[in-house]
Amino acid sequence: MDQINRENVGELELAWEYHTLDSGQIQCNPLIVDGILYGMTATTRPFALNAATGAEIWKGESEGTDFFSTSRGVSYWEDGDDARILFTRGPWLYAVDARTGKPVLSFGENGRTSLKAGLGETSADKMVISNTPGTIYEDLIVMPLRVSEGDDASLGHIQAFNVRTGALAWVFHTIPQPGEYGYDTWPGEVYKNTSGIGAANNWSGMSVDRKRGIIYVPTGSAAPDFYGA
Predict the structure, then answer these.
(1) Are the C-beta atoms of 201 and 210 separated by less than 8 Å?
(2) 3-state secondary structure 15-62
(3) Which long-range contacts (CB under 8 A, 24 or more apart) does 3-7 make?
(4) Percent of the chain having pLDDT more than 70?
(5) 156 and 174 in contact (C-beta within 8 Å)?
(6) Cβ atoms of 154 and 127 closer than 8 Å
(7) Is 76 helix (H, G, I), strand (E, B) or coil?
(8) Which of 59, 88, 96, 193 is least buried, going by the fewest C-beta atoms within 10 A?
């Protein structure tokens, strides 16, 4: 970057261009690891490119019906020779081999695990997706969620999944349950998600202090979050 300055920036030329061959909105912020660029198409198909040339290395397979949802990118995890890309499509968290794009079949059920795993039974028929990449800490991925903003909102608990197995590792209840800190500041039955109250979710992403083992999680308000006067 020290080769680019105010005197020569106007001389920059396009080096390469990659066509995803689908249409829609791309909000992806790519990752580059060891010279490979990882990103997401508008129809939530992950891909890997040679970052120097733009040549495609792999692109994820469609599941038959492409899922149109803004995706802001993917997460990367590695341990020795095991390197994985984690991404979401609909209510699912997927893991694929970073080198080939093939599903990691030992992760969850044949390569995917449900984002509803720790949200309780009331989330079964409600919208739960994730537009934002999860945050990696050691062998965990902590997931942001997008839920409805109306009275049909699922609970927005913070969930961590084991990167190796896809198993739910822990859940933090943003709407506290009986015996948890802050429970007395909410109406008594709200935590059950049966009275039209939900959300309090993280949708924008998180920051992690790896040295101290602390994750910082901003949330939105409980839903419905419209004034409605």
Answers:
(1) no
(2) CCCCCCCCCCCCCCCCEEECCEEEEECCCCCEEEEECCCCCEEEECCC
(3) none
(4) 96
(5) yes
(6) yes
(7) strand
(8) 59
**Kind of pairing between the strands at 214-216 and 168-172:** unpaired
* Alpha-carbon gap, residue 195 to 197, rounded angstroms: 6
pTM given for the model: 0.92
Nearest to 191 by CA among 122, 124, 128, 114: 122
Encode pLDDT of 29-44 as tens digits. Answer: 999 999 999 999 988 9
CA–CA separation, 7 and 3 (whole Å): 10
Closest CA to 43 of 55, 18, 30, 60: 60
Query: DSSP character for 60?
Result: P
What are the DSSP calls for 87-113, one per residue? EEETTEEEEEETTT--B-TTTBBTTEE
Count of Cβ atoms closer than 10 Å to residue 57 Cβ: 15
Q: What is the 3-state secondary structure (H, E, C) of 120-135?
A: CHHHCCCCEECCCCCE
The rounded distance, in Å, linking the Cα atoms of 64 and 218 is: 35
Segment 75-118, tens digit of pLDDT: 999 999 999 999 999 999 999 999 999 999 999 999 999 999 99
Distance CA 139, CA 40 (A): 23
